[in-house]
């Protein structure tokens, strides 16, 4: 089976300079939600039809999808025609780039019915009490499919039909090609409707969608917010049913791909996105954002930002810490308030508790990084590494000018600027000599200065 995703629309109602499918929910573009769902079906190929500002959309797509272009937006049928070379004898599932809520489970059921009935096409439909705005599924007295009529083209009687077209459909590839040759723009919109193809086929089946919200398309910012709310609620409910405590679901945002272990507590105002994995017995938040991180067991992260970091077991982070890309915190590490790390490995039992920047560094075990310490990793042109060994004590307000190697068991005096390597077990001082002038203040006062 192949999957073809239609994403060429203008999206005028978004009132945006960006194509509609580039807008995000839960931190990920609409079209990439659809692509990721499609990949779970293990298709032989995935194709995407682009149109409006296609170069912008192309930049955010995975490299393993095939791209086709609809130069003029003349309807969904015309969009599929634009990818004609993509269609073979394999089944083709048609999806839409602005429908991020569609699930793998629903699509599998649709595909299963298609295969089990040997249908030429199988349409995903829904039963709505108020079908206004949707194309109607026209059937005969035996319940056999006849046609799909778009809302703009319905008669008064057809408007009363409650079974509607969701837009999702799987075709036999050869039958789709045959049908595309027959459709004409004979409608109020003057467009080539993909929904006209099934009426030219012999065996068309329907599968009724259980949760209509899965088929919702995003056309404006209000619907964008509604889709995010629906996805958020489903995700949080699933996590809570599987043993995760979420203190305040109204202020917690977790994307569906996130994995969280049992007995972890998520505090209010917490945002967890991307391919994040969190272990058991953790406490995350409040006021914390985590993106694409791997987090072990019994980790505490308070009021902090973590992106593309690896955090092992029994680590504490925050408050007000920032872990940037490439940070690795080994077991029992403590990262305290106003500490920033980037491309830095910190080994077990090491502490950096206050007001510190550690960039492009590797730090050993049982080391203490004093408050105000900075690794000076950038010389204005290139980045350089700092190596700090085991059981090192770095005094407060120290500047470590890379490239630099500080060996095991050494001690750096507070207020030092270190520019040379330090051997094992050494004391290093790099500060100006203190000068004290006794009674200097009193003498100045006597002179009235």
From TrEMBL:
Record-annotated active site: 354
Binding site for acetyl-CoA: 371, 377-378, 396, 414, 431
Sequence positions that bind UDP-N-acetyl-alpha-D-glucosamine: 6-9, 20, 70, 75-76, 96-98, 135, 150, 165, 219, 324, 342, 357, 368
GO MF assignments: UDP-N-acetylglucosamine diphosphorylase activity
Binding positions (Mg(2+)): 98, 219
Pfam families: NTP_transf_3
Its biological purpose: Catalyzes the last two sequential reactions in the de novo biosynthetic pathway for UDP-N-acetylglucosamine (UDP-GlcNAc). The C-terminal domain catalyzes the transfer of acetyl group from acetyl coenzyme A to glucosamine-1-phosphate (GlcN-1-P) to produce N-acetylglucosamine-1-phosphate (GlcNAc-1-P), which is converted into UDP-GlcNAc by the transfer of uridine 5-monophosphate (from uridine 5-triphosphate), a reaction catalyzed by the N-terminal domain.
Name of protein: Bifunctional protein GlmU
Organism: Marinitoga aeolica
Top-level taxonomy: Bacteria, Thermotogati, Thermotogota, Thermotogae, Petrotogales
